[in-house]
Amino acid sequence: QVHLVESGGGLVQAGGSLRLSCAATGRTFDRHPMGWFRQAPGKERELVAATTWNGRDAYRAYSADSVKGRFTIWREDAKNAVFLQMGSLKPEDTAVYFCAAGGAASYADTDYRSYDYWGQGTQVTVSS
Q1: CB 84 within 8 A of CB 20
Q2: Are 55 and 102 in contact (CB under 8 A)?
């Protein structure tokens, strides 16, 4: 059985930083997409950042415009994990953040249905 377990969420002041981690068990995701989505109350789940295989020799990292320059995604396949470093946090970044993996997601694919596996989510709250 596949499990994705997120950690690292919490409460932080605006301008602060947090690092989210997601560890996968039950299967490996080498050359498969891994990413982070978020969902704020009353809003749809949106893609924050993702890494996808370029089909040849490397992963490509994608970040949503709203977080570009502030958030960085990376993965460590040896650990079967993906990370999200979040900086210069804003109150509008407040949401539940979900780790996602597997499926047929392509580069910049914002459709959450393109991912097969999901974590339980971790709350990130940014105070003003």
Answers
A1: yes
A2: no
Residues 24-35 have pLDDT tens digits of 999 999 999 999
- Is residue 119 within 8 A of residue 112, CB to CB? The reply is no
107: number of Cβ within 10 Å: 15
Query: In terms of DSSP bridges, do strands 3-7 and 18-25 run parallel, antiparallel, or are they unpaired?
Result: antiparallel
Question: Each residue of 71-128: pLDDT tens digit?
Answer: 999 999 999 999 999 999 999 999 999 999 999 999 999 999 999 999 999 999 999 9
Place of tokens 């993965």: 75
DSSP states of 38-73: EE-TTS--EEEEEEEE-SSS-EEEEE-TTTTTTEEE
Helix residue ranges, H only, the chain: none
How many C-beta atoms surround the C-beta of residue 102 within 10 A?
18
